[in-house]
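hi! just following up on the protien thing from before. the input was this:
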Amino acid sequence: MAFWILIIFISIPLIEIALFIQVGGFIGLWPTIAIVIITAILGTFLIRKQGLSTLQRAQNELEKKQIPIRELFEGICLIFSGALLLTPGFLTDVIGFVLLVPSLRGILGGLLWKTIQNTKGIKIEMSDYKSHNIKEETGPIVEGEAFEITDEENKENDKK
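and the predicted 3d structure came back as:
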């Protein structure tokens, strides 16, 4: 795993540099810089709008006593999207904008949910990446006292 993280941290900046050189050579320095700034501003606006919407949906789910699983995942995607869009570069911008598309986040979330369920035999009794009810404990309250039984007492009780 550490090897793949190292490869990612080395390859992404190299790809970004190559893209900057190609795009800058094609359209020039200042238009290239303008594109990077515009994508950061546009991305920030879209993330704020979608983030507030996702937060509102999560609050509605909690009011209904449901766990906002989808909204939590979308919030994480929006955080990653924001980090990628604020990072200068064309590849990171493309990935950041892809994470802003709700239907693609849904597909990614569904794939992740199935992967989690299939990993190491874990079976989660939840239906396919949706909000789920929080079970309330509404049974009777029973008061009592607890005390420790030693091994000797337990053996004496077994003999009786």
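Residues 29-63 form the longest helix (35 residues).
The CA atoms of residues 26 and 112 lie 39 Å apart.
cheers
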